[in-house]
Structures are given as C-alpha cells and as structure tokens.
Amino acid sequence: MSSKPSSPHHDHIPVLGKEAVQWLDPQDEGTYVDGTFGAGGYCRLILETSKCNLIAIDRDPEAIKRGKELEIEYPGRFQILHGTFGDLDILLEEAGITEISGIVLDLGVSSMQLDTPERGFSFRFDAPLNMRMDQGSLAQTITASDIVNTYDEEKLASIIYKYGEERKSRWIARAICKQRMIAPITRTTELVSIVSSVVRRRPGGNNPATKTFQALRIYLNDELGELERGMAAAERVLQPGGRLVIVTFHSLEDRQVKLFFKERSGRTPSGSRYLPDTSDLSRQPSDLSRQPSFSMLTGRAVPPSEEEILSNTRARSARLRAAQRTNAPAWDQKVAA
Ligand SMILES: C[S@@+](CC[C@H](N)C(=O)[O-])C[C@H]1O[C@@H](n2cnc3c(N)ncnc32)[C@H](O)[C@@H]1O
Asked: Of 117, 185, 196, 312, which is most buried with the most CB atoms under 10 A?
C-alpha cells in the first residue's frame, strides 16, 4: 500500500476485506462498485489493488462525509454516491456510469454506526432508540422507538421472531406493550431491561437483547428488501464476466444470497419464486427457459480465517459468496413505474 494522509478511520480493518477484494479481482481500467462504503476499508483495498475506477454508495450521510475525503485522495478514480444499493442501477444511470466489471456488498451496520452511541444501534450504550441508517433522509423518518411504542403486540412479536429468530418473541412483545402503558420506551437501555426481564442471560452467552435489537434494525431499515433489490439491480448492470461479491453477517442474509445465486446459476428445480409460474398459459415460451445469469465462483460460503476471528470477534459470523455474470439476460428486468 502506498502511504496516504492519515485519517481517524484509516486503520479500520474491514471484515473479510482481503478475501472480498481477491474474489472481486479488480483489473486496471475496470469500473467497480462498492455498494456499502462504511468506513471505506474495502474501497481503499480495491483502489490500492489496481488502477480501476470505483464508485461507492452508502445510505448513511456520515459515511458520505468520509467518502468525500477519499474522493480527494483518489482524484478521478473514486466517487461516492448517497443512496441505497437497492437502487444502484438508478444511481449509476443518473451518474452516467456504465460497463460495470464488479460489485461488492458488505452488509449490515458498520463499526462506526455501532460504536456511535447516539445512533442507537447498540445495546452497550444508553442512547435514544433510533437505529436509522439514513438519519437525514425523508425516506427514513420512523425510528425503532416509534415501532416499539406504536405497533400492536402481534406485529411486534412477528418482527422479533422473523428478523431476530428469537424464540421468546411473544414474551418480549408482551413485556414491551405492558411497559409502554406506563411510559413510552425511548432509550436503548429501557429496551434492554424489558427484554432481560423475560430472556435470561446464559453464562458466556450474548446479551439477551441481541436478537431483538437485530430484528428492529433489519425491519426498520428494510435490510432484506434492500438485499433482494440490490442483487436484482446488480444482475441488470453487471457486464458479462462481471463479479458480484457479497459478505453477510447473519443466517437470514446468507440464506437469501445463497438462494439467489442458486436459482440464478440454474441449480434450483422449477417451483422457485424466481422462476416463472408455468400455470400462466399466456406467458411467452422464452419466459419458461431462463438461462443462468450467474455462474458460481465460491462453492461453500467463505468464512473468515481463525486469525481474523481471534483479532475481531465481530467477524465470526461473516460469510462471503461470489458469482460471475454470464451473458444471459437479467431475470428481473425492471418494470417501468
Ligand atoms: C458493514 S459496513 C461496510 C464496511 C465497509 N466494507 C468498510 O470496509 O468500511 C455497511 C455499510 O453499508 C451501509 N448500508 C447498509 N445497507 C445499505 C443499503 N441498503 N444501501 C446503502 N448503504 C447501506 C451502512 O450504512 C454501512 O455504512
């Protein structure tokens, strides 16, 4: 790496960064997209690995500020865009960027988001129950506090079960609804103590509120919807041979990525939700014989090395999957609004 002016986040070590860049395999003069800029760890590695052009996207205005600093460090080669990767095809089109050779997504929240108490992502600090990734946007006005104070018990239980895979979701929802009759729940620590009143901490186990916090964050930021739209958008913009590399942090995301790649690489028999419904006789025959739009590069999901897990416990649940675009048409062509 060449030496660059130091910044507070220069020493940020991204999870599976080396592996992600190896699988992306950036080439000189190619154009690449990092859909989750974060602290820019992947971006720096990509820019130092080849003389490529790189576009980064992030929905968090704080990340955009850091991206602007990187634009100055790599003039003409790097550009940061504010928005969601679910809209990456629209963002790239608006910026006049075409012929994409590779896209990387490193999902979830950044260390900066988790470690900034007032963002309200972490149960480790007492802070407002916020959890919005894009705090400045009109597109994201409701907070985690709004959800716990206004959703009915059944809906809360279903969110906590579905996105947190929390078996005690009903008990937690009931405790939340009971507590908010006394006073609105506005702080992270209030939610932690409500959850802790019904979920016991196991010796050496995670904080009992871990799954509930994960569930609210995923639901509020529509993280799984973003992932679905992002993968479909990547399929539309990648040129043949272009690579899509995705790093996930929990089983819900990893399952979704695995299923997408399995289907798009033609390894799923009919009946999948991505395949056309053959009962509709009005469909054109070409709809019924979709060609694989991706071929897999990774077999099983790639985990972090033992060494990385030892030096960064947050890495332990990370998994990487990568695939390469074929020259078949994208399965999900965008339908004009
Ligand atoms: C795990 S961090 C990425 C870290 C980055 N790879 C690095 O090396 O610093 C995830 C980042 O993605 C952003 N993000 C999450 N979902 C997003 C979405 N749907 N669209 C755009 N950015 C998103 C978050 O705001 C966060 O900054």
From this structure: 185
- pLDDT tens by residue, 114-132: 888 989 898 899 999 999 9
Taking the CA atoms of residue 23, residue 25, residue 26 and residue 31 in that order, the dihedral angle to the nearest 10 degrees is -60
Q: Give the model confidence (pLDDT) of 237-282 as tens digits.
A: 999 999 999 999 999 999 999 999 999 999 886 444 544 444 444 4
Class of domain 141-220: mainly alpha
Hey, whose CA ends up nearest to atom 25 of ligand 1? 60
Same fold, 17-112+223-325 and 141-220: no
State how far the alpha carbon of 127 is from the alpha carbons of 90, 178, 187, in Å: 35, 21, 5
Residues touching ligand 1 (Cβ under 6 Å) are 12, 14, 17, 35-36, 38-42, 57-60, 63, 84-86, 106, 108-110, 133, 226
Atom 12 of ligand 1, residue of closest alpha carbon: 36
Top-level CATH class of 17-112+223-325?
Answer: alpha beta
Residue type, 335: V
88 CA distance to ligand 1 middle (Å)? 13
More confident position, 205 or 176: 176
Hey, is 100 helix, strand or coil? strand
The full set of domain ranges for the chain reads 17-112+223-325, 141-220
pLDDT, residue 219, reads 96
Cα–Cα distance measured from residue 129 to residue 55, given in angstroms and rounded to the nearest whole number? 32
